[in-house]
Amino acid sequence: MNYQSIRLTRDSAQVARLTLARPEIQNALSLEVTRELRHALAEVAADDQVRALVLTGEGKSFCAGGDLKWMQTVLSQSRDQRIADSRPLADLFYEFDHLPKVVIGRINGPATGGGFGLTCICDVVVASSTARFSLTEARLGLVPANIGPYVARRLGLARARRYGLTTQFIDAAQAERIGLADRVVAPEELDRAVAEELDLVLSLPVSSIAATKKLFNDVIGRPPRECMDYTAALLADAWERPDAAEGIAAFLGKRAPSWKVTTG
Q1: Strand ranges (DSSP E) for the chain?
Q2: Strand partners of residue 165
Q3: Which helix (H) or strand (E) is 195 found in, with range?
Q4: From 198's CA, which of 48, 70, 75, 238 has a CA 20 to 30 Å away?
Q5: pLDDT in tens, 198-255
């Protein structure tokens, strides 16, 4: 696919980088951007070598949420069309959330509305000290609908209500305190901090990354007793993969493991 609004590149065979590339409108989202992002995610998901995806924005902003020109066209649509057009965006967030790779958010600037939601679906969030965050939908008479499940899960219900109902801005330091960001660094240190997180990820096998991410998605909100059969089977599956034998042998041999590129 010839991408117009995003860039999908490789830092290495094991690291992909997805950049929102509409800096003139703060990397705002539209249906076309959504289509391109979903196509790019499918490419990354299908590549067994990739362990991590770095998500970032071009220019001074990470993502300003919905493109207002696109949103204006929604006013003239029928209810059925609005629902139909909303679904691809909901699918996008779901596909990000279930990508069998580590998603590292390189939050280079303001992240509002849908950009706030994209932050919440990242597995690791490294933010510039210049970043600011806000759930801005209520200011437009709207609701943070498609991103709501991911915001509430990341922040917890009480904080999701606070920020969704007040639309107040959160600076980077506060984002780190409430768990929206995992690390906050000076702008010039952003790439170094992302590289440090990538070093941790690249020491792990693809199979464990995918299975661990699926595990947490599957068990969240369920009583532990209901998860016992599922987790026992998942662990049995892990033992049967070559990565387990290699990992244990490497640990006992005090050497670095040699992971095979298999997802099992």
Answers
A1: 6-12, 15-20, 52-57, 102-107, 111-112, 124-128, 132-134, 170-171, 183-185
A2: none
A3: helix 190-201
A4: 238
A5: 999 999 999 999 999 999 999 999 999 999 999 999 999 999 999 999 999 999 999 9
**Which residue, 136, 109, 259, is CA-closest to 190?**
109
Local confidence band at 261 (pLDDT 50, 70, 90 cut-offs): low
CATH of the domain spanning 6-201, picked from 3.40.50.2030, 3.90.226.10, 1.10.10.60, 3.10.450.50? 3.90.226.10
pTM for this structure? 0.95
The DSSP bridge pattern shows strands 170-171 and 132-134 to be antiparallel
pLDDT in tens, 74-105: 989 999 999 999 999 999 999 999 999 999 99
| Per-domain boundaries in the chain | 6-201, 206-252
Residue of 43, 137, 188, 189 marked catalytic: 137
Catalytic residue at 189? Answer: no
Residue 156: partners with Cβ closer than 8 Å, 6 or more residues away: none
The single residue listed with the structure tokens 């510039």 is: 128
User: Would you say 212 and 243 are in contact if contact means Cβ atoms under 8 Å apart?
Assistant: no
